[in-house]
Design goal:
heterodimer; A: mainly alpha; 3 helical TM bundles of succinate and fumarate reductases; 4 helices; 0% strand; elongated; B: 127 residues
Chain lengths: 128, 127
């Protein structure tokens, strides 16, 4: 029997997601990542209450370049999640649905999250 | 033979009278976390740069101690609410979904309690 050619819905594997969808799923992924990162926050408190030698050991670990990069990537994830979260709050208030401005808003939150990460990085570096 | 009335079947399946609480608390904690995230940067700055004596003094000042616990509790609450949505969206079998949501809630409650205990121990050892 001959197979009839039926129209196919866009398949997720071959469908290029629009930028809005990429940002949306990134918001989720950064959220999950940050939830895992909260464990590191608890860990840092645990280390501080352990005493001076454990704290100094942790400090030498986070001063390793690779660990430092991982920490700053987490902080970037935090600011990305924060900036896109602010947009979600605007959406919840019924604002910011203009379709032509969608990509502009994305650029705005990208810029804001990179800038906030960079300012924080400078702040921490200058404090040392 | 089905003896249950349509009303009895519908009871317990519909509104649990708290349907908006999850959504609403996600937003309330989100707003609170905007300023608190900047406090986290101050804390990370201490982790990178302060001596042990200094970070303890910094943490137990009334403002920072308050913000530490505010950040921790709000963050854990927000994270648990968010992970719950992710699980509900992507996990299919009901038993697994319920089990994972329970695990998330218990884990984050436990982490909040642990943070409180650690914070108190830091305060006692510094005082």
């Amino acid at each position: 029997m001959e197979q009839r050619k039926r129209p196919l819905a866009p398949h997720l594997q071959v469908y290029r997601l629009p930028l809005t969808a990429v940002v949306s799923i990134t918001h989720r992924m950064t959220g999950v990542l940050l939830a895992a990162g909260l464990m590191l926050f608890v860990l840092s408190l645990a280390v501080i209450q352990c005493g001076a030698s454990s704290f100094q050991a942790m400090q030498s670990v986070i001063h390793q370049p690779l660990i430092g990069i991982a920490v700053w990537m987490m902080i970037y994830a935090l600011f990305f999640h924060l900036c896109h979260g602010v947009r979600h709050l605007f959406w919840d208030a019924g604002e910011g649905y203009e379709k032509p401005l969608m990509n502009y808003y994305i650029l705005l939150e990208m810029f804001a999250s990179v800038a906030l990460t960079f300012i924080s990085f400078l702040f921490v570096q200058l404090g040392s | 033979m089905e003896y249950r009335t349509p009303l009895a079947k519908a009871r317990g399946l519909g509104s649990a009278k708290s349907g908006t609480t999850h959504w609403w608390m996600q937003r309330v904690t989100a707003v609170a976390l905007i300023p608190l995230s900047f406090w986290l940067i101050l804390f990370i700055n201490q982790l990178f740069n302060a001596s042990y004596v200094d970070i303890k003094q910094w943490l137990i000042s009334p403002v920072n101690f308050t913000l530490l616990l505010a950040w921790a509790f709000t963050g854990f609450y927000h994270a648990a609410l968010g992970l719950q949505v992710v699980i509900e969206d992507y996990v299919n079998p009901d038993w697994l979904k319920i089990a994972l949501v329970w695990i998330i809630k218990l884990t984050f409650t436990g982490m909040a309690i642990a943070s409180l205990v650690f914070a108190i121990r830091i305060a006692i050892s510094a005082g």
